[in-house]
Amino acid sequence: MHPSIYIALDFPNAEQTLSFVEENELAGSPVKVGMQLFYKEGPYIIEKLKERGHPIFLDLKLHDIPNTVHQAMKSLASLEIDFVNVHAAGGARMIEAAREGLESTSGKRPKLLAVTQLTSTDEMMLKNELLINETLENTIVRYAENSYQHGADGVVCPVHDIRKVKQACGSSFITMTPGIRFKQDEANDQKRIATPTEARNEKADYIVMGRSITNAADSKQAYQQAIKEWNANEK
Ligand SMILES: O=c1ccn([C@@H]2O[C@H](COP(=O)(O)O)[C@@H](O)[C@H]2O)c(=O)[nH]1
């Protein structure tokens, strides 16, 4: 296992998820649980993954009014997971409310990440659909600064923006980067992708890998390949 590589367990149910981790001998490896799995199974799947020693990033990307996010984070904090997140676009007060909700737990507080811009967003979509007349890079850095100033421990961002985010928010501000693909893989719906090697070179703290591992003919081997790339250029 590698502490910096989170495997996105985007499966439809607990049975398929637990078979996947068992068949590929992934007990103890960091995993990301997203909407598909959590909406189906709820806290049960978190309990089962914790029993197997997995560090957990619960990727639900909360985005609502501050009071709702505050109360939701209080509930999520009781799961004693490692990371949870919100959309940075929810704004300063919502991010503060999320942090306050997490701090109400008596157990270990999950770290709070804010999603800057999704790795499926490109410049064209930003301008034409989201009507943001700034570059993607400026938007991501500004959202990261706002998140940092209002209580987030880090951001979810594309690999390409890590350096600027760290310059603006400091090197200990966490960067969790999805959109990771091996060189030969399809991008699928992702617009801003990078290899594990590129992520490591850009000094990502963590990477998220889903389909490049879960859809591989040999998932165990694919995970080992990710670890190999990551370790090849040790910081
Ligand atoms: O900007 C973001 C934020 C979250 N994700 C999530 O990461 C995984 C990526 O899966 P792949 O199969 O490796 O593309 C997925 O669960 C997303 O919900 C993201 O891709 N981009």
TrEMBL record:
<dbReference type="GO" id="GO:0005829">
    <property type="term" value="C:cytosol"/>
</dbReference>
<keyword id="KW-0210">Decarboxylase</keyword>
<feature type="binding site">
    <location>
        <begin position="59"/>
        <end position="68"/>
    </location>
    <ligand>
        <name>substrate</name>
    </ligand>
</feature>
<feature type="active site" description="For OMPdecase activity">
    <location>
        <position position="61"/>
    </location>
</feature>
<comment type="pathway">
    <text>Pyrimidine metabolism; UMP biosynthesis via de novo pathway; UMP from orotate: step 2/2.</text>
</comment>
<feature type="binding site">
    <location>
        <position position="210"/>
    </location>
    <ligand>
        <name>substrate</name>
    </ligand>
</feature>
<keyword id="KW-0456">Lyase</keyword>
<dbReference type="InterPro" id="IPR001754">
    <property type="entry name" value="OMPdeCOase_dom"/>
</dbReference>
<dbReference type="InterPro" id="IPR047596">
    <property type="entry name" value="OMPdecase_bac"/>
</dbReference>
<feature type="active site" description="Proton donor">
    <location>
        <position position="61"/>
    </location>
</feature>
<feature type="active site" description="For OMPdecase activity">
    <location>
        <position position="59"/>
    </location>
</feature>
<comment type="subunit">
    <text>Homodimer.</text>
</comment>
<dbReference type="InterPro" id="IPR011060">
    <property type="entry name" value="RibuloseP-bd_barrel"/>
</dbReference>
<feature type="binding site">
    <location>
        <position position="181"/>
    </location>
    <ligand>
        <name>substrate</name>
    </ligand>
</feature>
<comment type="similarity">
    <text>Belongs to the OMP decarboxylase family. Type 1 subfamily.</text>
</comment>
<protein>
    <recommendedName>
        <fullName>Orotidine 5'-phosphate decarboxylase</fullName>
        <ecNumber>4.1.1.23</ecNumber>
    </recommendedName>
</protein>
<feature type="binding site">
    <location>
        <position position="119"/>
    </location>
    <ligand>
        <name>substrate</name>
    </ligand>
</feature>
<feature type="domain" description="Orotidine 5'-phosphate decarboxylase">
    <location>
        <begin position="4"/>
        <end position="226"/>
    </location>
</feature>
<comment type="function">
    <text>Catalyzes the decarboxylation of orotidine 5'-monophosphate (OMP) to uridine 5'-monophosphate (UMP).</text>
</comment>
<feature type="binding site">
    <location>
        <position position="32"/>
    </location>
    <ligand>
        <name>substrate</name>
    </ligand>
</feature>
<dbReference type="GO" id="GO:0004590">
    <property type="term" value="F:orotidine-5'-phosphate decarboxylase activity"/>
</dbReference>
<dbReference type="Pfam" id="PF00215">
    <property type="entry name" value="OMPdecase"/>
</dbReference>
<dbReference type="InterPro" id="IPR014732">
    <property type="entry name" value="OMPdecase"/>
</dbReference>
<feature type="binding site">
    <location>
        <position position="211"/>
    </location>
    <ligand>
        <name>substrate</name>
    </ligand>
</feature>
<feature type="active site" description="For OMPdecase activity">
    <location>
        <position position="64"/>
    </location>
</feature>
<dbReference type="GO" id="GO:0006207">
    <property type="term" value="P:'de novo' pyrimidine nucleobase biosynthetic process"/>
</dbReference>
<keyword id="KW-0665">Pyrimidine biosynthesis</keyword>
<dbReference type="InterPro" id="IPR013785">
    <property type="entry name" value="Aldolase_TIM"/>
</dbReference>
<dbReference type="GO" id="GO:0044205">
    <property type="term" value="P:'de novo' UMP biosynthetic process"/>
</dbReference>
<feature type="binding site">
    <location>
        <position position="190"/>
    </location>
    <ligand>
        <name>substrate</name>
    </ligand>
</feature>
<feature type="binding site">
    <location>
        <position position="10"/>
    </location>
    <ligand>
        <name>substrate</name>
    </ligand>
</feature>
<dbReference type="InterPro" id="IPR018089">
    <property type="entry name" value="OMPdecase_AS"/>
</dbReference>
